[in-house]
Amino acid sequence: MKVSLDLLRSFLAVHRTGSVTGGAQLLGLAQPTVTAQLRALEEAVGRPLFERLPRGVAPTAAGDELARRVAEPLDRLDEVLAEDPAEPYPRTVFLGGPAEFLAERVVPALAGPVADGLELRVTAGLPERLADDLATGRLDLAVTSVRPRRRGLTTEPLYDEEFALVAAPAWRDRLPTPVTPSALREVPLVAYAEEAPILRRWWRTVFDTRLTRTPNLVVADLRAVLGAVVAGAGASVLPTYLCDRHLASGELVALLRPAVPPLNTLFLATRPPAAGRREVQAVRRTLLAAAAGW
């Protein structure tokens, strides 16, 4: 049985994205073209490869088996065809992640490769959007606070965020030691979202109680939250990578230092077709090495 590489590439793109539309976008083809290629491939192998759903497709057992067998050879072939031995970074790398972490850690860590000729495009986004953009090929790599569950994406731990309850020194002077949830009722709370997920997790983990208050100030950027807290607006829970310098300078103080501070793992995610490219591998290695010192 002879099957063209184009049919297999279209099949693999649909398998990885979970939809014909996503596969077509990944390949830069029209949706009817990909639909026709899938039909031709199913006729060639003599069995259905996908179950058509109201939204997207789900692979059959035969589809999963075919993907397992052809993914690595096709990815390697595409990698070899794209390589230019004279170029250390043959293609642009598209990277996404949380805006604050990109600004504070990721982009500075990649200054060296950029100075050496890497072309990099960086986009901020939330976990669900980042996973979508990885699956459809708009991103090559993403730093995400939630491990993506999308088929075809690979993830590895990058960095454990540690969180601290912080405020300007004047607020600490008004509070008892140790700080209690009831005492904190007198302190305005600053959050980046109306639901205050970081604050609520801190209360649940450290104080073993629910936070029942709504924030006094909501601003949709952790750097703006930091600025408000430094200026004396109240207290917030922030990742230490964002406020370490302010704690060291005395502009902020930690209101409580729990024996086991809440942590949140950030993951580095990629899609197999991009993972083998030299420039993507270079970005991955650079970030993993830098994260060891964060």
From TrEMBL:
The keyword Nuclease does not apply. It holds the Pfam family LysR_substrate. Keywords: DNA-binding, Transcription, Transcription regulation. The keyword Signal does not apply. InterPro entries: LysR_HTH_N, LysR_subst-bd, WH-like_DNA-bd_sf, WH_DNA-bd_sf. CDD domains: PBP2_LTTR_substrate. Residues 3-60 form the HTH lysR-type domain. Belongs to the LysR transcriptional regulatory family. This is LysR family transcriptional regulator. It comes from Micromonospora thermarum. The lineage of its organism: Bacteria, Bacillati, Actinomycetota, Actinomycetes, Micromonosporales.
